[in-house]
Task: inverse folding
């Protein structure tokens, strides 16, 4: 098995955490815990986790949109260097909760900074590193936000609190990204029951990496 970089994307409440938990457990059963790494953006190491706290602090209502975009890119850079590159060197399967597509959708479209501008900004951070496979969990914004409101109201972050119009812009940006990069980004209908979503995600991963979930 050689290193594999798989990212998971989706609007808030799409079910990434729930799906990735199951995918990680099943891969660990197949290959052993030391061959699989779950990690998340922004975060995954002590520097990026500090940036995460600044980004999601509900008191930071006056944060400028470009500041926000730069902080996400900075957290991404550190995460690549501290987590992703070493895990690739160690031939692990990397399950990464969000990556550059989230910045394009949330900051580029949601914050009106421009998708191309955010892509350009992030080139310095990612230095050419893209996942081989991105699983995009698609769910209508209303459904995702309802799930969060019903089950996770204690953990609502600064971005979850944005208005519905913001979340619509984010989702449609993800859909455009998927259409522009159909080889890398695979769409899974995440409005289905969780077990079916997990089964569909496994199928998508297996299609790219036949040795996984065979
Ligand atoms: N397919 C599903 N059907 C119904 N409920 C679901 C489904 N997937 C996840 N949920 C529930 O929706 C809520 C949000 O799920 P989860 O935390 O996995 O989403 P997420 O994409 O990681 O969210 P966020 O982007 O905000 O971190 C949880 O309470 C979870 O139990
Ligand atoms: C990487 C990244 C994330 N975001 C947003 C998307 C979500 O609202 C939060 C992350 O929370 P989650 O529980 O980990 O899904 O941050 C963003 O706006 N831009 C980014 O680049």
Result:
């Amino acid at each position: 098995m050689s290193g594999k970089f798989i990212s998971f994307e989706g609007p808030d409440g799409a079910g990434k955490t729930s799906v990735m938990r199951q995918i990680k457990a099943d891969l660990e059963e197949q290959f052993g815990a030391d061959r699989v790494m779950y990690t998340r953006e922004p975060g995954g190491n002590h520097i990026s986790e500090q940036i995460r706290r600044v980004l999601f602090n509900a008191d930071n209502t006056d944060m400028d949109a470009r500041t926000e975009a730069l902080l996400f890119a900075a957290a991404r850079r550190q995460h690549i260097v501290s987590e992703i590159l070493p895990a690739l060197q160690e031939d692990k399967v990397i399950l990464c909760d969000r990556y550059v597509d989230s910045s394009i959708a949330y900051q580029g479209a949601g914050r009106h900074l421009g998708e191309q501008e955010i892509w350009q900004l992030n080139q310095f951070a990612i230095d050419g590193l893209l996942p081989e496979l991105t699983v995009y969990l698609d769910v209508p914004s209303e459904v995702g936000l309802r799930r969060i409101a019903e089950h996770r109201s204690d953990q609502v972050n600064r971005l979850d609190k944005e208005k519905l119009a913001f979340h619509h812009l984010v989702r449609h940006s993800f859909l455009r990204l998927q259409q522009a990069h159909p080889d890398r980004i695979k769409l899974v209908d995440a409005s289905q029951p969780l077990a079916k979503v997990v089964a569909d995600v496994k199928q998508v991963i297996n299609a790219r990496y036949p040795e996984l979930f065979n």
